[in-house]
Structures are given as C-alpha cells and as structure tokens.
Write a structure and sequence with these properties.
Blueprint (H helix, E strand, L loop, with lengths): L1 H5 L4 H4 L6 H10 L7 H12 L12 E6 L3 E3 L2 E3 L3 E7 L2 E9 L9 H9 L5 E8 L2 H15 L8 H4 E5 H10 L6 H16 L32 E3 L2 E3 L15
Parallel strand pairs: 5-6, 6-7
Antiparallel strand pairs: 1-4, 2-3, 4-5, 8-9
Helix pairs in contact: 8-9
C-alpha cells in the first residue's frame, strides 16, 4: 500500500470528492504490523506512537493488531482504526487508536469507542492520531461536558493520548540508523507518503552544497547579501539601486 501511494496510483481517488485519506494513510502506515514478526511489529509501533509507549521499553511477549474492528452499540457500529493488544511480562496493555487527517470527529465518537473497546482490569490507552492537537482537544472538551457525571467513563481522561502526524514524520526521519533492512524500507516509504500529503520535517542544512567562493554580484543589482569582497579590516560592499536583505553604501 505504501508503494501504491508513493507511485501515485491512488492520487485520483484521494483528490476526488470526500477523501478517504486518513484510512488510506493509517492502513498503509500500520497495516504491516499485523503481518510482521513480533520484533518488527514492535519497532513499527514504537516509531509511530513514540512517547505513548515510552513506559514500556522491553520487547513484549505478544502483540496483536486489528484494523477497523467493529462492534455494535445502541444499534450503531463503532469502529476505531485499530485495536492493539500487547502482553508484557508486567501485564497486558490495550491501545485503541483513532486517526484523523482533515476530517472532524463524529458526535460521541471517542466515548463510544471507549465504551466498546476498553478492557476492565487491563490498562487501556485511547490514542488519537491527528494533524493538529486542537482536532482532538476540541472533541475531548465537547465529550467531557456531556459525560462529566457518567461513571462508565471513569479513567477515560487519564487514558487519552495525543499523537500528531508531524511527530510521526519526525520520528520516521530520525529513526534512520540501525534498523533492519525491511523496516528501513518501510520507514523511507512511510516518510515519503507523509511528506507527499504535507507533513514536512526539518532536514537541516547538510543537503546544501558548500560554496568554494562567493557568487559574483554586480553593483547596482539587489542581492540577498551584497558583499563581494573583503579587504582587512574593511568589508567592501557595493551600493545597489533596489532594496536588498543586506545593503550598504560603497566605501
């Protein structure tokens, strides 16, 4: 799926009408974790979820990823983007994941997911993967006002976590050393997909070629920086006739 996206094979679909972008990108990012070996799946999750999983450092005993698992509540389907069950030596952990791109949340979407998929007696975290923090916090505020006195949601506030797509892109960029070759291929394609859809990351200045000498600049022409020569102890800076970022009068 990542290669389907990077090669532009779904561009017409994603650019037409209501875009299924969040499901497409999320499935491409995390779908591989449902089929990989335990070590590889854990590596993928650690990169995607970052600090959410920081309290759990060691390799788990087991890990299961279910995408778009459905249950019914009050006659309506509830379908988070993923339900992930992880078993550590210290005990089990359940993750409920809901991903959004530009779309908003449905009414009571988060609370209905919590009711259907939280696990009693098992630590459960509800992870919201969004483009901006405000997407999730606005939804939480709306939910909290209506659920304040409902005991069924005790612990939901404490169990909520927020991850931005840009943070995922940053981790994908930074996790470029020491990965197994198949995870490195996934990392590169996943980062490329997020970049394609606008989640850019800072790449530093290493990609800029060093100049052997300053470029020739004619006097009288505007320039970003006008200095063309230096004679100790005075800089020789020609005057220009138009505004420039740095402009000085000729000595």
């Amino acid at each position: 799926m990542l290669q389907t996206l990077t090669k532009g094979k779904l561009r017409a679909v994603l650019n037409r009408g209501r875009e299924p972008r969040e499901d497409t990108v999320f499935g491409a990012m995390l779908g591989c974790a449902a089929y990989q070996d335990l070590q590889s799946s854990w590596s993928v999750l650690r990169i995607v979820l970052g600090e959410v999983l920081s309290p759990w450092n060691g390799l788990p005993d087991s890990l299961r990823v279910d995408l778009w698992r459905r249950r019914k509540l009050d006659g309506r389907f509830v379908e988070p983007d993923a339900v992930i069950d992880i078993v550590f030596k210290s005990g089990p952990l359940r993750l409920i994941l809901e991903a959004k791109w530009d779309a908003g949340f449905h009414e009571k979407q988060g609370s209905r997911q919590w009711l259907c998929f939280r696990q009693n007696q098992i630590e459960t975290l509800h992870v919201f993967l969004v483009r901006t923090p405000e997407q999730a916090t606005r939804h939480w505020d709306d939910e909290d006002r209506s659920l304040e006195l409902d005991a069924r949601f005790a612990g939901w506030k404490e169990g909520r976590r927020l991850v931005t797509w840009n943070a995922v892109a940053t981790r994908l960029q930074q996790a470029s050393y020491g990965l197994p070759s198949h995870i490195e291929h996934w990392r590169r394609d996943a980062l490329r997909v997020l970049n394609m859809f606008g989640e850019k990351t800072f790449e530093g200045f290493d990609h800029l070629a060093a100049l052997d000498r300053p470029p020739a600049i004619s006097a009288g022409a505007p320039a970003f920086f006008n200095a063309t020569a230096f004679a100790w102890p005075y800089a020789i800076i020609p005057a220009t006739s138009a505004p420039a970022f740095f402009q000085g009068a000729a000595q």
